[in-house]
Design brief:
Blueprint lengths: L20 E6 L2 E6 H5 L25 E2 L13 E2 L2 E6 L2 E3 L1 E4 L3 E9 L2 E15 L4 E4 L9 E7 L4 E9 L2 E4 L6 E11 L1
Antiparallel strand pairs: 1-2, 3-4, 5-8, 6-10, 7-9, 8-9, 9-14, 10-13, 11-12, 11-14, 12-13
């Protein structure tokens, strides 16, 4: 077998499976090893990694991008970014009078422990009733009480702010709320 540099090898037409055999010459003795055994337990690094196809997918839950090379601020608890997600959620109204069939929609983006939410509820009219009004159905349970703001989207008037606790947005008492409520905020899980 002729010796070649890795850069001189032809490109693979399919991704490596790990079962490929690589010849190794040590002290004039040629042996072979599978790609899997060659890289097992070893960290593979690159100065810059450019992906032209596919995605970078952690194989184990809780793994992600580790920023420990950065100098942390005092009191840091983690330098691992291990969650990113976007999606929708369905706002559920409690202690609100809704006239007409409501159209409800919610979106969220989670980056690490921070969840950004938006929701929109439209009906003929919406008003608070007795007791605390709230919107439930958040995509993740809040780890601490956070705040959000609700707006009468028809008139762009801020209705006030409320709190996120658990999976619920507690709203201030408004009457009437109008025909469309929009809310946005963020909270930690």
């Amino acid at each position: 077998m002729t010796n070649k540099k890795i850069s001189a090898l032809s490109s693979a037409s399919t991704p490596l499976t790990g079962s490929e055999i690589v010849p190794i010459n040590q002290s004039s003795v040629t042996d072979s090893v599978s790609v899997t055994n060659l890289t097992a337990g070893r960290s593979v690094s690159a100065s810059d990694y450019v992906m032209s196809t596919g995605n970078l997918v952690p194989s184990t839950t809780g793994k992600g991008i580790n920023f420990t090379a950065n100098t942390p601020a005092a009191g840091k608890t983690s330098q691992l970014l291990n969650w990113y997600e976007e999606g929708t959620w369905t706002p559920n109204l409690t202690n609100m009078t809704v006239v007409g069939s409501p159209a409800v929609a919610g979106t969220y983006t989670r980056i690490g422990r921070l969840v950004y939410i938006e929701c929109r509820v439209s009906a003929t009219t919406i008003a608070s009733t007795a007791g605390t009004s709230y919107i439930s159905g958040l995509p993740f349970t809040a780890g601490q009480v956070s705040s959000f703001i609700a707006i009468n989207a028809s008139s762009s008037v801020a209705l006030g702010s409320g709190q996120v606790n658990g999976t619920i947005l507690y709203t201030p008492t408004f009457s009437p709320l109008g025909a469309t409520i929009s809310c946005s905020g963020s909270y930690e899980v």
